Amino acid sequence: MEFRVRHLPVVDDQGILRGLVSEEQLLDASGPDAPITTLLGPAPVFVTPRSHVFDVTKTMMQHALTTIPVAEPDGTYVGLVKRHDIFEQFARMLSTQQPGAILALEIAPRDYSLSQLVYDIEQHGSKILSIATEASEQSTEPIRVTVKLNATDTARIRHVLEHHGYRVVACFSELEDDEDLQFRVQEFMRYLEV
């Protein structure tokens, strides 16, 4: 309760990880004198110091953990990663603290090309700070792509992406300016002239 986590590692006197104990297991123990070893499963769940953050996240999600022990392959306990630590790492990886716009896009799986998306964006003077894709379990459903850009004016980029088959689901910008509105009006007027 003090550390606001629901799982803690159990380490023996030699520094070897023996397992994880959950808050629920502690509350369900036969009494305050019950040995912790009676609460542990057959093999401890852990990651190694060289594990990638994606693998750590996958393991935490698979086992519904709030913390995960870090140990060497021989079981020597190294430390602990909390869910909040993972969240902070993903925030850094996604450039959430950098200024810029976020585009939420959708495109058919057969039309999705990361290289073409990057090319289309960079040809208009913007750089991609981060990108995330989310494919549906149904192969016919569109792929959802979220792009963080180093620019706040995305009107031209959105127009180009829509021309290349992307559906712009949402645009989040720190600065919605008059240039964006002017561009939309000009496009609408060109549409009316056709």
How would you portray this structure in words?
There is one protein chain. By secondary structure, the chain is α+β, with helices and mostly antiparallel strands. It folds into two domains: 7-90, CBS-domain; 97-193, ACT domain (Alpha-Beta Plaits, 2-Layer Sandwich). The chain contains six helices and eight strands, in the order ββααββαβαββαβα. β1 (7-11) and β2 (17-22) form a beta hairpin. It is elongated.
Number of domains: 2
How much of the sequence lies in strands comes to 15-25%
Low-confidence stretches: none
Instruction: Provide the succession of SSEs.
Output: EEHHEEHEHEEHEH
Strand count, sense and closure of the main sheet? Answer: 4 strands, antiparallel
Would you identify the CATH H-level superfamily of the largest domain?
A: ACT domain
Determine the N-to-C terminus distance.
66 Å
Quote the CATH topology of the largest domain: Alpha-Beta Plaits
The number of helical runs is 6
Mean pLDDT: 87
Question: Which short descriptors sum up this protein?
Answer:
4-stranded antiparallel β-sheet; single chain; 6 helices; 31% helix; alpha+beta; Alpha-Beta Plaits; elongated; two-stranded antiparallel sheet; 2 domains; 194 residues; CBS-domain
Give a short synopsis of this structure:
The protein is of the alpha+beta class. The chain is built from six helices and eight strands, in the order ββααββαβαββαβα. β6 and β7 form a beta hairpin.
